[in-house]
Amino acid sequence: MKNFCRKNKVLSVMLISALFLSCDTSEEKTEGEKIIEKSIEASGGENYGNAEIKFTFRNREYKSKRNGEKFRLERLVKDSTGNTTHDILSNEGLSRYKNGEVAIVPDSMVTRISDGVNSVHYFVQLPYVLNSPAANKELLGEDEVEGETYYEVKVTFREEGGGTDHHDEFVYWIHKENYTVGYLAYRFFTNNGGIRFRKAVNPRTIGNIRFVDYKNYKTDDLSTPLRDLDSLYEAGDLKFFSNIETENINVSINKNN
């Protein structure tokens, strides 16, 4: 167990509505909730609520549009022959179009396709996607990573409203002064499970919303506490896994809503 201010210590898919619902203000907020709210404000705040966001990720085109609790998430894939698959996830469920024609999605594939669309939008739009009544946010303490001090906030999701992967666990390192997310770690249980640690890089502000890319690392020791991953990263004990790069970002804000 770490001390609160010790300086040197040795993901998945969430609820779709986590992208769009507001925090529950009916009860007094925890310290973790307050920090997440400040992080959301520092990264775009109310601009998220009426934004249409387009971007490219791994040669696939994505678009999200929201208005209050209404949402629409899209993914457009073009294969080498020019055929297109267009998936749309909204309050009404999942729709798929192939070359502009409605396609029937087998029940066995609905969750897999929906999770695939949602997961990309989820990580691109952090920390706003943590603005969910199903999210439990706990301040674990503070720590120093690469010379900067961060709050460590653990996020889990309740089963009710928490999505298909509500068992997944997250820790976010949120800068103590500017409240931006510098690092995150998560434990997932699908496909035999795993642990990832991401460092945010290439921060830029587009349409008054902050976006980042990530350096993605992993450990094969699945018993590792998520809070220890920052120290393992600094010690060079994590394995580089991939670059997570979001390209061609375009943001439109509907100020009439």
From TrEMBL:
May I ask which residue range the UniProt record assigns to the signal sequence? 1-22
* Pfam families membership: DUF6503
PROSITE patterns from the entry?
Answer: PROKAR_LIPOPROTEIN (PS51257)
Q: Which InterPro entries match?
A: DUF6503
Which key words are in the record? Signal
Protein known as: Deoxyribose-phosphate aldolase
